[in-house]
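ok here's the first one, seq then struct tokens
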Amino acid sequence: MDNNRREFFRLWFDDSIEGQVSVNGGELVPVKIYNVSAGGLGFYSTISSALNEVITCHFKILEGSFVLAGSIVRKIPRKEKDTIEYGVEFSVDQGTSSELFKQLNYYQIRQRKGLLAE
């Protein structure tokens, strides 16, 4: 049995969505986001960043645009195309977290009904 210790439900995309990240206030770099929750996200990138680095994530879900600060909590090298898989934990206020949670719920409903054009 899977021991899921996550505080928030995680939305997995059928196809990765486009996003951008900025590490320690640097320039924006394009990334492929493969999952998001109200507490964090996972993405693939060719950039190399250290664990615990401060990161700002930019992405859109349905009608919501988000710019969320967090830190890198997971880094796993992948064999595919010299990319790295990252996990980010957000450090956001309750209002922002609630808005993201709402958009994720709407997205998941549309995803299950087949109403998305990803």
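and now the second one, same deal
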Amino acid sequence: MNILVTGATGFLGSHLVKRFLQENHTVIAIKRKTSDLKRLSICLDNKNLFIFDSDDNGLKDAFSNVHIDTVFHTACCYGRKGESLETILDANLMFGIKLLQTATFFNTDTFFNTDTFFNTDTLLQKYLSFYTLSKKQFVDWLKLYSEKIQIVNMKLEHMYGENDDDTKFVPWILNQLKNNVSELKLTKGLQKRDFIHISDVVDAYSLLLNKKNSLKSFSEFDVGTGDLVTIRNFVEEMYSAYKKIQPTLKTKLNFGALPYREGEIMEIKENLTPLKDLGWKPTVNCKTGIEKLIKNLYE
């Protein structure tokens, strides 16, 4: 297939690009002009990879270059680096709408969207940040456009793995341990979350790509392992695994030093049955995933 991936230089996007190239698809990678290509360095010479900048007319040029069968939209802005509200809305809502319009105009078959997970019965979570609100607003547009293009909305749990962004929770914790900081201030960490390794997430996307002809005009899938662990347990597992490699680690984990966010969700609810019924299952548990991640730091 001819597959277009937005956010291609990002954590998830780069892993998808590499998987799709391994599966002999042609990949049209969309990035910002200023994006670093280091995550794609291993495949830059692949003759089936074409890279376009999203700035200016890059998006239209990409669709004009070859017929796009499927779009995988992973580009987003978390707002962790002090970005303005306008920047967050442009990345998470307006660019997505432009992408939808362009894909529809050029008769693309299917649009995979990367969504953030939240409890549908807890409306407050939708408003915890500009990021989550903008992502959920885009889903409303996806439902509207599902009359014109097949939509697959992927609601991802807490992804982690090699080459993630340092501003995200798991890499940030590991960097603090690597720097052997004296104290790591955290909440009590009793929130239950589902941490899923990037390889299992990519497996889910790949499976659904091959099953898309059997899906409805709008499909939605929770993507997680089904195993909820407290943040405290996950951090302690990281600490234990890291200390095996660096016995001189002295960092104190100070749970309870920070308050929970207002409206903090203490336990998420997920339904993995629709995805598992299609033949997908996670293969990397937390212990194995953490060990792989820490080993990667020293390779």
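notes on #2: The two ends are 34 Å apart (CA to CA). Residues 85-105 form the longest helix (21 residues).
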